[in-house]
Amino acid sequence: MINISEVIETNEMISKENLDVRTITLGISLLDCVSDDLSRLNENIYNKITTLAKDLVATGDYIGKSYGVPIVNKRISVTPVSIIGASACRKPGDFVTIAQTLDRAAKEVGVNFIGGYSALVSKAMTTAESLLIDSIPEALASTEKVCSSVNLGSTKTGINMDAVVRMGKVIKQTAVLTKDRDSIGCAKLVVFCNAPDDNPFMAGAFHGVTEGDCVINVGVSGPGVVLHALESVKGADFGTLCETIKKTAFKITRVGQLVALEASSRLGIPFGIVDLSLAPTPAVGDSIADILKSIGLEQPGAPGTTAALALLNDQVKKGGVMASSYVGGLSGAFIPVSEDQGMIDAANAGALSIEKLEAMTCVCSVGLDMIAVPGDTPDSSISGIIADEMAIGMVNAKTTAVRLIPVIGKTVGDTAEFGGLLGYAPIMPVNRFSCEDMMKRGGRIPAPIHSFKN
Amino acid sequence: MNKTVITVVGKDTVGIIAKVCTYLSENKINILDISQTIVQGYFTMMMIADYSAADKDFVTLAEELKATGNDIGVEIRMQKSEIFDNMHRI
Q: What is A220-445's CATH topology?
């Protein structure tokens, strides 16, 4: 039988160390909504989402209350809209109507984000995918809940550089259209290399075509719990450090697994995966940066940061896979700048640069995330940063992503305010040398060879 | 059997256990085990109980018990026991 100290430990994790289930994400296939009539398509999408997800929020809240653990977000991911809209959409504006339908459906069922305004163009793009990409700035500016993602490359296909160049411009246009709110549209837009089909986290969630009709995926969190556990092993060797992180990750993930199975049975929807991620929030103590400091760094960005992060990421996975039989999504430590108070402090202190963050993404999930850059950063430089990050993902056979926010009208020294879970971010400097001629070449970068690993 | 873990945390005063037990018996919740300790100066009591005979919905019970705790100045949580079993047992 459970003893009192175990009960106290769990409840302290929840009340003092911000243990929560970060998101229950309901994946919904929209393939059976397809129609060549745009208004019919929109109607089908709205009806399917509002029918399947009508109990999602209430069920999530009920489960949270019965176990006494907060379930912070309830979200929906849908089949990439570029596929769903292909037969009905003739111009970017047609796709925007689908974004608005998704937004309406999300508000109706009370979820805080809906993902899947997406295109998968890792090799090349169809006419519909091209139209969807063109529609992204308008779609994100005219909706609140819709998140968009574009997969630009993969280890098997290489990198679609035409799409990388297009996305540099799309990110900039999105920033311009939402400039009155510190270019917040870009916080809902992410580009990927090797995007997973079952990611429950935003902004990159979509319901992959390899998935079934609907699925429950759960993202766990708990940087504060790991941090607290590490405080008890200050100065101990790496073996002890790793053991502590692993045990903690196991406990956190078991809560996610429990919630996932309960949600699946209550909603009558199959359980997909648990995403083992350490996802920070702007709340003090809920920070990946603080864990890195607790490992022994003065600030994240100091020499040793990449090694510390590699260790953390690996132990989280080792502890987590033992706790859930089905692990998927992004699974690892997230290092968004604006959503992590410790990262914000490190950037303000000058300890953290985009280049160091790029190195850190080689060993963790997911990528350059929620980084505010000057509004006058050239489109080609944004594309260049994306290309670098895609190359890391392609060569290392891992998921990488970029979510940059060029904040129009602001520059280094200023701060961008996004609010809520998205937090705030100091504007970080971008290398001022140009990559324009490289971006003008066009075409794609071939897939890498996977022998002769050096 | 549907097990729940009830924890009561707060300043020790007369009648805490009586209040909680009265509520539980009125709602057909059977107490299986009680233990208590002092954590950082606070009285902490844990009960393991069976709520399978209860008529009310679990979350309603949890909320009513929480309100009972607020009346006497202690924090009462009622949670399904699976969260603890899953976290602390392989």
A: Anaerobic Ribonucleotide-triphosphate Reductase Large Chain (3.20.70)
